[in-house]
Design goal:
328 residues, 3-stranded antiparallel sheet, globular, 14 strands, alpha+beta
Length: 328
């Protein structure tokens, strides 16, 4: 619903959470949503590619006439296949449809007060469009926009993030908060559900599998399934390898959305998916047991913050003074 439970930056001076960073393969979620809305037949067609699935050259925008390897739509998103998603953008969507989907999910607007809007570089030619649709280049979003994109996976709604629980005046009296803005229509609930189902593959056998499973292959969150998407790209300011993860859990009926971004300047280090998995463990697991019901502690805590201040505001509120008109 947009309420922020936790918002952390480990280096707010050189890596502020309020400005945009390269969106990387998070853009594949947007491309996938555009396909499901505008070209659903493409999701049932296999993608044939040659070479590394993460490389892209102009001639790889066209399927090879023979040879190569084959990936389904589900496998392409689980493995973050750049060649397949570049072709989806170029051959199945086109520039106008993809840009409209980016606007639809709010990535070009400021996600909250004090946050910069996202941006997309000009699309010039097929390769540029392929880079944008696959997330290899051309798009920038803030971590809060990424969390907002993750939240849209729950019901397809574009929520408005908020994080202020209470406000008082200089005398300590409580002030009523403005009414929360209603969510905007983003995707249909059916498209959101289909996206979640294919994105479960990312954490179960795709690019985030090692983060969400231990060395023995056991899921770190037990029976709690997570629908997510990773992203990796080289960035600047600060310079390094940017790693993203967004997701929702439980995948069947989400209660929590999460977005993480990490910059590493050397091989190794903790990935964004590992940060997300560890964070979600604190939400869904306790004493070695994981259960979807444990997430309700966060919602109960938020309600416990809201209700007392509402009662206090109501208690001190004064009725308006009556207006008396002089009789002539």
């Amino acid at each position: 619903d947009g309420e922020i439970f936790s918002y952390v930056s480990t280096d707010p001076d050189t890596f502020p959470a309020t400005r945009p960073y390269p969106a990387a393969s998070l853009m594949k979620v947007v491309t996938a949503a555009a396909l499901l809305r505008s070209a659903p037949e493409a999701t049932s067609r296999d993608c044939r590619y040659v070479g590394s699935p993460w490389e892209l050259s102009p001639h790889q925008l066209t399927p090879p006439p023979r040879g190569g390897r084959v990936a389904s739509f589900r496998h392409a998103i689980a493995a973050s296949n750049n060649q397949c998603f570049a072709r989806y953008a170029v051959a199945d969507l086109g520039k106008a449809t993809l840009l409209e989907e980016i606007r639809r999910v709010g990535l070009l607007e400021a996600p909250g007060t004090g946050h910069a809007p996202g941006r997309v570089l000009p699309v010039r030619g097929r390769l540029s469009l392929g880079h944008l649709g696959s997330g290899m280049a051309g798009s920038f979003i803030t971590p809060l926009s990424a969390a907002r994109l993750a939240a849209a996976l729950a019901r397809g709604e574009l929520v408005h993030p908020y994080w202020i629980a209470r406000v008082r005046d200089s005398e300590g009296n409580p002030l009523a908060l403005p009414h929360r803005r209603k969510p905007l229509a983003g995707w249909s609930p059916e498209i959101a559900a289909e996206l979640r189902e294919v994105m479960v593959g990312v954490t179960e056998h795709g690019t985030a599998r090692s983060a969400f499973h231990d060395r023995a292959g056991r899921p770190r969150l037990g029976s709690v399934r997570v629908a997510g998407k990773t992203g990796t790209v080289t960035g600047h300011e600060p310079a390094g390898r940017y790693q993203w993860f967004i997701g929702v859990a439980p995948a069947e009926a989400p209660r929590v959305a999460i977005a993480t971004v990490v910059v590493n300047n050397a091989p190794g280090g903790t990935s964004a998916a590992e940060v997300a998995a560890a964070t979600l463990r604190t939400v869904f697991c306790e004493h070695g047991t994981c259960d979807v019901s444990l997430a309700e502690r966060l919602h109960a805590r938020a309600k416990a913050r809201r209700d007392p201040i509402k009662r206090e505001v109501k208690k001190v509120a004064r009725p308006p003074e009556p207006v008396v008109l002089d009789q002539v």
